Amino acid sequence: MTRYITIILGLFHFLAGAQHTGKVDFTEGDIHIEITPEKGLIAGKVVYRFKVSEHTDTILVSSRALQISEVTWKGEPLNYQAKGNNLMIIHTFEEGLYEDLVIQYKASPEKAVYFPGFTTTSFSEDPPVVPGEGGKQVWTQGQGKYTSSWVPSFDDMNEKVIYTMEILFPKGYELLASGQFQGKQELEDKTLWKYALKKPVSSYLLAFVGGNYRKMEERSKSGVPLEMYYYPSDSARAETTYVHSAEIFDFLENEIGVPYPWKVYRQVPVRDFLYAGMENVTLTLFSDSFITDSIGFSDKNYVNVNAHELAHHWFGNLVTEESGKHHWLQEGFATYYALLAERELFGEDYYYWKLYNSAIQLIRLSEDGKGEALLDPHAGSLTFYEKGAWALHSLKEKVGVKAFRSGVKEMLTTYGFKNIHTGIFLETLSKHTNADLEEFRSQWLEAPEFPEEEAVRSLKRNKFIRKYIEVHEDDASPVVVYNEYRNLLKEPLYFPLKQMLLERASAWPEKLRDSFWLEALRSDDLYIRQGVAMAADTIPSSLKKSFENLLDDRSYVTIQEALMKLWLAFPDERYGYLERTKDLKGFEDRSLRILWLGLALFAPEYEEDSLRFFEELQSYTGPGWQFETRQHAFEMLFEIGGVTKRSLLNLLQGLDHPAWQFSRFCRTMFDRLVLKPEVRIQLRTIMPELDPALADRLRSKLDSIKLESH
Q1: CA-based angle 260:265:268, to the nearest 5?
Q2: Where is the Peptidase M1 membrane alanine aminopeptidase domain positioned along the sequence (predicted)?
Q3: Three-state SS for 607?
Q4: 690-701: b or e for each residue (b if 16 or more CB lie within 10 Å)?
Q5: Do both 170 and 236 map to the same domain?
Q6: 2 and 84: one domain?
Q7: Are both 282 and 378 inside the same structural domain?
């Protein structure tokens, strides 16, 4: 009977706490933790100060799978219960200010904190760390994965707290965290790192990262320190990766009209990041796949992510959405202001080209009956990001630049460090314009359909887009448009139009096509030459020499396209093509190097090196490499029939990888491989090397295939 009474009382207290949480306002939190990365363990305490506005018997703190060992107030133990994702603290709290609420805990997070290189599965034959590839790291991801997975905090974004962090971490590494650096203390085999925020933030914006890093430093025009971190092995690529960082910072401060709200800004690359980047307050983390050199920059760079995550420090970090219904106030604004920064750097045509491409996607979504309202809390990323940016572009055209800027500035200054909803934004903006904002709300925010007609009218204000649409809709014969296309190649028009012309020429009669392409291949414009490389399915002999020159181009995309197509078209020249490109790695994901290895394995001139090449190709499937590299290697091994026990073990290791893109890829690849009888035999032989849970999953999968075959 006592047990049932306890359960009933616990339920009563839980419901009471859920009702009374609005009576408690947490104001400050001091986090003291020790990280043991080899064990994936975090242990320590958090000390909170809070205000109670009205008597309550319970307080709720978010706590996801944390092992709470003690809760005290002024040194006295308090009763507590863990209920779902909450820690329920049971005590009679009267109106007033409270200090020294201490929560002691341990955590072995399965998400929100990641330990690449420190922890990995035991059955892989490859090392968890590869020299020069970022080394061992620890990093966090709060948004969507919950900071309450590593510290008792608040999943509710409306609870904003001023945090400090003291983190004990093994010596020999940098440890960075949200806030201003307050110093460090060297201990016997660990270092105590101290950071402090001066303003309140939602808990999901807290972060830390530990690893081997060096840094570049600049200052904004307003004097804010800009710290840009990189791996020691990437010193030659750091400047290219972070190019324009100071320009972007200065532009956004000026364009938004409100000073950067924090005292420092850091950017840090990490391995196997779950997204492109994350705007943790003062500490943006981003995928190290964006690290690049001057050749890779033209095709893939960090500029957009750089601007997007910085813009969030105003839209998301300074003012935060009240709920998911208003998520566009963060992602739409960050996407739009990043686009404005890119327009400043790359020009008006670039800006409208990106709007055009997102409009095409949104129009298709609407045509398929899958359009989403911006105020739908369950909408997808395309809606929140791209439709949100489009809504702001349209709104600025509607109310005018001056009114738009004034409204945004007033919203940020009035509601800084608070939470907002769409009504607040529109009400604030209405003070600066006579435009009908209800019509805007209905058309852009509440309707699921994308306003195609208005978008097209806006796009056609740009000369390049007008010409692009005109040419795209023109279906005249090649003979009629040949000279026009030649002239367009020479005009100072943005390159996507020219690449479209080159792609269209692939369907022309051979003589006209080759003449047009040859002229394009002689162009000084990298993107025009790239257009031919991408458009050509085969390479005619008349273009052989020009295509060979592409192997020395300043674009990894162009080189990769040219190498593959030359290798197919001219078998007798394969060795020469491979020799010219043997020292190229390509992008950070090593896609060019992996293609090269796959081709070299079929070149008889490399027979003596084939085993070494195959070992290198297999090694790229190992856990020490970023997941994009591993994915390319698995795909190549599958195509050439080279999957071995070693790569199978690495594929199995990837089934539960924290990056959803890679774990999904591994599951799909596994489903394709397991259909092959020889692979099933291999899998049964390696089962004893796997942990029991994975072995059971594998056995079940193999048994189901056996049943289906009968």
Answers
A1: 145
A2: 245-444
A3: helix
A4: beeebbeebeee
A5: no
A6: yes
A7: no
Please report, for residues 514, 559, 684, the alpha-carbon distance to residue 531 in angstroms, rounded to integers and kept in the order given. 13, 12, 47
Q: What is the spatial distance between Cα 206 and Cα 186, in angstroms, rounded to a whole number?
A: 24
In a domain, 121, yes or no: no
The span from the CA of 122 to the CA of 584, in Å, is 32
Q: Is 485 in the same domain as 344?
A: no
Domain boundary among 437, 463, 489: 463
Looking at the structure, do residues 636 and 700 belong to the same domain, yes or no?
A: yes
Query: Taking 70 as the threshold, does the pLDDT of residue 4 lie above it?
Result: no
10 pLDDT above the threshold of 60: no
Output the average pLDDT for the chain.
94
Identify residue 186 by its one-letter amino acid code: E
Amino acid at 673: L
DSSP bridge pairs for 418: 319
Give the residue from 150, 170, 153 showing the smallest Cα distance to 162: 153
pLDDT, position 125: 83
Alpha carbon distance 573, 323 (integer Å): 61
Q: What is the pLDDT of residues 244-267, one digit of tens each?
A: 999 999 999 999 999 999 999 999
Co-location of 229 and 203 in the same domain: no
- 257: region left, alpha or beta (phi > 0 left; psi from -120 to 50 alpha): left
- pLDDT tens column, 363-401: 999 999 999 999 999 999 999 999 999 999 999 999 999
Same domain, 337 and 458: yes
Nearest to 62 by CA among 156, 138, 127: 156
pTM over 0.90: yes
**How many helical (H) and strand (E) elements, i.e. helices and strands, does the chain have?**
27, 23
List beta partners, residue 343.
none
- From CA 207, how far away is CA 143, in angstroms rounded? 10
Strand partners, 202: 160
What does the CA dihedral 70, 73, 76, 82 come to, rounded to 10 degrees?
-30
Same domain, 226 and 282: yes
CA-angle at 366, arms to 364 and 368, nearest 5°: 70
The share of the chain scoring above pLDDT 90, in percent, equals 90
Higher pLDDT pick, 363 / 16: 363
Angstrom distance (rounded) from CA 400 to CA 403:
6
For the chain, the domain total comes to 5
- In the DSSP assignment, the letter for residue 153 is B
